[in-house]
Amino acid sequence: xxxxxxxxxxxxxxxxxxxxxxxxxxxxxxxxxxxxxxxxxxxxxxxxxxxxxxxxxxxxxxxxxxxxxxxxxxxxxxxxxxxxxxxxxxxxxxxxxxxxxxxxxxx
Length: 107
What we know:
The chain has helices at residues 2-28, 49-61, 91-106, and strands at residues 33-34, 41-46, 67-68, 80-85. By secondary structure, it is α+β, with helices and mostly antiparallel strands. Strands 1-2-4-3 form a four-stranded antiparallel sheet. Strand 1 and strand 2 (41-46) form a beta hairpin. Helix 2 packs across helix 3. The termini are far apart.
């Protein structure tokens, strides 16, 4: 049980640091991020289905896999954006990918 508690503390620190980096990159780019402090992903809202598809496709061309919100809707989506998971990424992967995602969102 001590091992589990130690592991959970370590994971919380790692996730917290990664979340802070995600939030900082998008704050510098004035991009709204939706999501709570306890999660393993955030949502970046986009103005339209076309913008969502464009960001997802542009990221894929750069080797970055993003999940659009559209596929999670039954019927016509009312909210557009992308889900960005950050817990399975290494710090280096985030450092490389986040500015590219920010540029795609702002394009």
